[in-house]
Amino acid sequence: MNPTLSRRAFLKGGVATAATAVTATALPGAAEAADPGGYLTTLFDLSKCVGCGECVTACRETHEADFPQPEKPFPKMIPARVPVEDFSDSRDDEDRLTPYNWLTVQETEVTWNGEEHTLYIPRRCMHCINPPCVKLCPWGAAVQEKNGLSRINDELCLGGAKCRKACPWHIPQRQTGVGLYLDVLPALAGNGVMYKCDRCHDRLQEGEHPACIDACPEDVQTIGPREEMIKQAKALAKEMNGYIYGLEENGGTNTIYVSPVPFDVLNDASEKGPGLPDLAPHGNSMAMAENVGTAMLLAPLAGFAAAAGRIFLKLKRAAKEEETS
Amino acid sequence: MTPLFHLVFRVNMLFLALSGIGHMPIFKRYYIADIPGFGWLAEFHITLTIHYLTAALFLAMVAWLATTRILTKSEDRLTRPARVKVGLYIAVIVSGGILVFKNLKGIYMPAATITATDLIHLFGAFTLGITALVARIKGLGWLESREQALPPAAR
């Protein structure tokens, strides 16, 4: 069949394409572009931390009401391989991240440049600039706020633990037997709620600092806009001839560490395992979504151009044939 | 639509749907990822990449079909289930576009918007699959002649 083309039909096509493009851009009207340079960032000076644990205590006291209160026995889950993750009998455990302990201090002994160093590294959510836990959550239970912090909505989370797998440091921790899944299909879907540091988002709303910062007797942490914290981190690193972690890790995080010892040395020496994040140089896990996402806008345009081109060529050929006959 | 176009469209839709369902942590739970060759369904960054790439091809093919349909005078018209499918495709495409936008760096989107968009995308795709299945069982294709569309008395 030879296609026929009219100016009206062509305009109709163009208008439809334009309307689709405009609708697609206008619909997320509630969305806003944010400036990652202004995201609220904490800077840790590891040379100052003495491992007193005041930050851990303050975190636990501040979030006591947020901790899970599971009821036992837990509903049976199908299939039997679904793991029950229960920390309710070890609520006092401060040696790793758990649903009841959102901040832990890792003690690391290393020899660097002929000197022995004992470093204490407070570990909790890194609050990535583009957090995979938030972006890959299938329900929108994990959210990133305007100031860059990420947190998990315990009323919506089903405990699938995708966020933990997507997180390069596997920070969020699951407690079985609590949350929305109990009211939906407890045997067949979900497995509790995921918990992690929320950077004391409610304290921030009140104009206060996160509890761990206020409680620290050594002023290990500084908080401020990311660009400013990067400047301070670089100046501090220069001053102590030290090293920085968090500028590029997973595309950049809103937590920056400065240490007198290289982070690969610290990573090799530190204990790792469930609830004990590493200090490895992680690449940007959201790079594909950032790059292909922008390029994806071109896909429908390519389809439109290919079809319009094909029809144009057919018409041209038909006109030529008509002329010659 | 040539047979090759049809085949590519269907195979692409299969991987688009599989990788989309793989966004939920269910393939590992229900042993499907244990089947040799299906392990990728439990790797979230792989399912995300495949979903993006198949979505790009899907969008290009849909744009090609829509442009051809609009620019070509045709006596045929869309069947009733086809009109329902077009509506559902638009809902899935627009919600998918919003989610792609959300995944870019430096984008703030309220939690309620994200959840609503996720649900529209999920249930839109699910309903689309059911509609396509019912239409196929009933033997109702995409197009019918205008004559066929008229009530029997008017023909």
Tell me about this structure:
The complex is a heterodimer of chains A (325) and B (155). Chain A has a single domain (36-293), classed as Alpha-Beta Plaits. In chain A, the strands form four sheets. Chain A has a four-stranded mixed sheet with strand order 9-2-11-10, covered by helices on one side. The radius of gyration of chain A is 26 Å and the shape is globular. In chain A, strand 5 and strand 6 form a beta hairpin. Chain A has ten helices and eleven strands. With 325 residues, chain A is of the alpha+beta class. With 155 residues, chain B is mostly helical. Chain B has two domains: 1-73; 75-150. Chain B is built from five helices and three strands, in the order ααβαβαβα. Chain B has helices spanning 3-21, 44-71, 80-102, 111-137, 146-149; strands spanning 76-78, 107-108, 143-145. A two-stranded antiparallel ribbon of chain B has the order 1-3. The longest helix of chain B is centred in the middle third of the chain and has 28 residues, at 44-71. The two termini of chain B are 28 Å apart. Chains A and B meet through helix 1, strand 1, helix 4, helix 9 and helix 10 of A and helix 2, helix 3, strand 2 and helix 4 of B. Strand 1 (32-33) of chain A pairs antiparallel with strand 2 (107-108) of chain B.
Can you lay out the helices and strands and say which pair or pack?
The complex is a heterodimer of chains A (325) and B (155).
Chain A: H1 7-26, E1 32-33, E2 40-45, H2 54-62, E3 104-112, E4 115-123, H3 132-135, E5 142-144, E6 150-152, H4 162-166, E7 173-175, E8 193-195, H5 201-205, H6 211-215, E9 221-225, H7 226-240, E10 243-245, E11 255-259, H8 263-269, H9 287-295, H10 298-324
Parallel strand pairs in A: 2-11
Antiparallel strand pairs in A: 2-9, 3-4, 5-6, 7-8, 10-11
Chain B: H1 3-21, H2 44-71, E1 76-78, H3 80-102, E2 107-108, H4 111-137, E3 143-145, H5 146-149
Antiparallel strand pairs in B: 1-3
Helix pairs in contact in B: 1-2, 3-4
